[in-house]
Amino acid sequence: MASKPSIPQGTRDFSPAEVSKRQYIIQTIKTNFEKFGFQPIETPSFENSDTLMGKYGEEGDRLIFKILNSGNFFFNKNKIELPQSLEVLQTNSAETINVDQRIELNKFTSRISEKALRYDLTVPFARYVVQHQNEIEFPFKRYQIQPVWRADRPQKGRFREFFQCDADVVGSKSLWQEVELVQLYDTVFTSLGLEGVTIKINNRKILSGIAEVIGASDKLIDFTVALDKLDKIGEDGVKKEMIEKGISETALVKLQPLFSFSGTFADKIKQLSELLASSEEGMKGVEELKFICDNVAELGLSTAILDLDVTLARGLNYYTGAIFEVAAPKTVSIGSIGGGGRYDDLTGIFGLKNMSGVGISFGLDRIYLVLEELQLFPETVAATSKALFVNYGDKEALYASQAIQKLRQENIKVELYPDNVKVGKQFQYADKRLIPFAVIAGDQEIASNSYSLKNLVTGEQVSVDFEGLKNALLA
Amino acid sequence: MASKPSIPQGTRDFSPAEVSKRQYIIQTIKTNFEKFGFQPIETPSFENSDTLMGKYGEEGDRLIFKILNSGNFFFNKNKIELPQSLEVLQTNSAETINVDQRIELNKFTSRISEKALRYDLTVPFARYVVQHQNEIEFPFKRYQIQPVWRADRPQKGRFREFFQCDADVVGSKSLWQEVELVQLYDTVFTSLGLEGVTIKINNRKILSGIAEVIGASDKLIDFTVALDKLDKIGEDGVKKEMIEKGISETALVKLQPLFSFSGTFADKIKQLSELLASSEEGMKGVEELKFICDNVAELGLSTAILDLDVTLARGLNYYTGAIFEVAAPKTVSIGSIGGGGRYDDLTGIFGLKNMSGVGISFGLDRIYLVLEELQLFPETVAATSKALFVNYGDKEALYASQAIQKLRQENIKVELYPDNVKVGKQFQYADKRLIPFAVIAGDQEIASNSYSLKNLVTGEQVSVDFEGLKNALLA
At residue B10, what are phi and psi to the nearest 5 degrees? Predict the structure, then answer.
């Protein structure tokens, strides 16, 4: 093999420094998940195709990575029927494929592939809950931190393999969980040193209520998709899009208060209550929002800001109650670093009805970028050794190894340079590895049962006994 | 969907208790890897097919999970040629397929699949080293703990998705690394409370030397495969197999000392030196073994036993120097719980020559079974809450939440039962979750700013203020 090997588009190798930083974020999230009573589960990387297919819409189905049946996939129980129109298919491009051809192609695909890589953690979680319902004590507070795979077109910041970090509660409709999830976001981001994130909150019932009172209930999706763009395209842009989608001028007039929606939380609740007075569902949403925000305010947040944002929609079809999204502090321009909400029928797709769930997710890759940009990673995050013992030959290496063994028993990370090469090369290795100390032990040190400890940053060198060495490296 | 959902054959869901136990093992391994100066890397779950194919033999190629090209895989740059003999293939079974048909099938497979799930961590590591050679400071001590996938026929204890935990050093031939890897095994298993494991050691050069002196160099593989079975089929069985493979009676006579190979380490070295006196390679192997074992003995092991086992071969084609295998204490009957060795040309497959490597691996699933059987998991391993706050309604839940918030700031895991349901049901939840305490706070407690703390094991209940609550839960 002549050319340098490479990895598939949209995937990544992580270097030691990168793994350490990612692990620092994951560990912080995990510790706080557990502090809030969430328990870990893990599910297989691939699921049966029928568990995943049809759960993410047509686009999602296309983006699911399918695994070829193993062994000689042609020898299944039955003969595989090749697509009749295969010849035609091959002369066409993907774009011009017609519905019949797609059905035929999908049929063929499903014959040679029965498993697929998971696309998110939510559907496998729903599958897990239904499959293990008799072993689970509800309400079930689970967290899950595992990679997912999507055959998205790779681009900056979008990967084909990435981690999701989810915490969900299933089996209870209590709004105290929404209160706790807001606190959990606050606690995690505060622990990471990322102060001042904005936790935006909205409620699906409020969006439905607004659509109802402006007489656009039948256009709920179009309405919310347009409203969600207020940040990006402004008031005029949103109005233009709504009109294009068939929402009336009269409706837009009723909607006007939303475009100048501001003030304190109490002000916003008041405006919403007036706007939604005639909608039972809308008022239910207002009440839920008020319960969550009042209790969060009563308890107080450490550094995060809770903000009512009526334009927030996210995956609207999915959420039925609260909707959350977290934005990084204003100095960093990046999309949301977390999101979630309540979904009243999580497990219905697998035949278990009436299981309300609520959950939040942390965007590992974006949080990484934010911490990097704001230089919030602790200096100690890298998993590097505290000292390198210089190798002067076998006798000296044994003397060094005796000290190394005792230091490791004190949980101090130290290592021996494996080869007896020029000292300059050994120091260079320590330098590149960011190891702060070198320990030198030759004939003289062995004779006096001591060690020369060199600070590789200042160049300072001292002679110490083992206790002195241990204390210097523990410091 | 009427029937209960399921997961693919050979894969597993992990419950909270299982994840916690697995994480405990992984964390112990990780901490010790880092203490010994190893740094973490991570590679993508799938690699380009040509990175993996042809690296594990024909059997391995068949067991690699292939990923179907995403989108409409029929529409690649070029037209896909279907196997000419597809009709014939479909009427045959997998076993009767001939070479030409297999080639044709493989060609077709490679047209519809260009990526594959990683089969082990070694080949991706070699690929990583070659791809990033200019960023790496050698010797490179890396560890990697990630899942791998194999399309093996699922059976008890053999899975299609499982974790590997590997530590390797690449770029140095120093035998001090073998010394340290033996210490690392000892340290990890001692940390896990698994005392008395046997670390078997051998050397490829000794096996080659033996084959040489008995005049069977051309039958090295057959010879070692047979010798490796001494444990299972006994002396007579091994001899019978060797004769079947064409090894002469005269050779077997020379081999005789190996069948009664015993005594102290020094005795064994003496016997080997006599047997191998005429083989330069064999004597080099003896010298290497002696260096490693002498230095390990000089430094001492905590609880593990190092044992020279001349029958140990493992993947012989792979290793060029030391060979390691770890056996659980005799009371547990299970295969090896770890293994490794030195391979002089790790990265040659990707065009980077002369990179000697040495590494060891820990078998997570088997270690789990051993710890379970010997009841060595600490009781505190489960990620469960320390106390459940009983929910008596919104006013009481707010009072509870205020205490919960402060307790979590002290890193105490506590949770509020989300719903105001019968107390019995809430206690039952605590019981099933193995939560040891319940905190009761109703009107009376709120009025006196106190909490009733109930020990769910003893039934004992005391009234405490917040400090008392905190101290009781910290204990």
Answer: 80, 0
b/e A118-136 (16+ beta carbons within 10 angstroms → b): bbbbbbbbbbbbbbebeeb
Please provide residue B339's backbone torsions phi and psi, each rounded to the nearest 5 degrees.
-170, 165
A67 and B66: CB-CB below 8 Å? yes
Query: Per-residue DSSP letters for A174-216?
Result: -THHHHHHHHHHHHHHHHTT----EEEEEEHHHHHHHHHHTT-
If you search the block for the tokens 């979008």, which residue do you land on? A158
| Crossing angle between the packed helical segments A204-213 and A220-227, to the nearest 10 degrees | 110
Check whether B104 has a pLDDT greater than 70. no
**Nearest in space to B441 (alpha carbons), one of B473, B466, B475, B411:** B466
- Give the C-alpha separation, B389 to B397, whole Å: 8
Asked if B273 is an interface residue toward chain A (Cβ–Cβ < 8 A), one would say no
Q: Distance between CA atoms of B467 and B475, rounded to whole angstroms?
A: 12
Kindly report the nearest CA distance between residue B332 and chain A, in angstroms.
Answer: 27
Any B CB within 8 A of A65 CB: yes
DSSP track, A328-386? --TTS--S-SEEEEEETTTTGGGT--S--EEEEEE-HHHHHHHHHHTT-S-GGGS---S
The whole-number mean pLDDT for each consecutive block of 10 residues of chain A, a chain of 475 residues, reads 82 97 98 97 97 89 90 49 49 58 70 91 96 96 97 87 97 97 98 97 95 90 88 90 91 87 89 94 97 97 96 81 95 90 91 93 96 94 91 97 97 97 96 95 97 96 97 94
d(CA B463, CA B456): 15
Give the type of residue at A389. F
Contact indicator for A461, A441 with CB cutoff of 8 Å: no
Tokens 């209930």: give the residue: A217
Cis peptide before B139 (omega within 30 of 0): yes
Tell me, yes or no, if B86 comes closer than 8 A to chain A by beta carbon. yes
Closest chain A residue to B170, measured at CA: A418
Q: How far apart are alpha carbons B137 and B113 in whole angstroms?
A: 35
Interface pTM (ipTM) of the complex? 0.92
The rounded distance, in Å, linking the Cα atoms of A191 and A25 is 10
Helix (H, G, I), strand (E, B) or coil at B147: strand
Most confidently predicted of B254-263, B382-391, B437-446: B437-446
| Paired tokens of B309 | 């086992």
3-state secondary structure of A27: helix
Q: From CA B291, how far away is CA A60, in angstroms rounded?
A: 59
Amino acid at residue number A1: M
The letter for the amino acid at A194 is L
C-alpha B190 chain-centroid distance = 17
Mean pLDDT value of segment B343-370: 93
What is the three-state SS of A249-278? HHHHHHHHHHHCCCCCHHHHHHHHHHHHCC
d(CA A401, CA B32): 16
Residue located via tokens 């697509």: A83
E-state strands within A19-103: 39-40, 46-48, 66-67
Structure tokens at A319: 């959420």
For the record, the structure tokens of B16 come out as 């909270």
B179 interfaces chain A, CB cutoff of 8 Å: yes
Q: Is A81 on the interface with B (CB under 8 A)?
A: no
CA distance A299 to B399: 9
User: In the beta sheet, which residues pair with residue B360?
Assistant: B167, B340
Give the integer Cα–Cα distance in Å for B216 and B229. 18
The Cα–Cα gap between A217 and A223 comes to 9
Interface of A with B in 214-243 (CB under 8 A): none
- Residue A466's Cβ-count burial label (10 Å; 0-12, 13-18, 19+) is middle
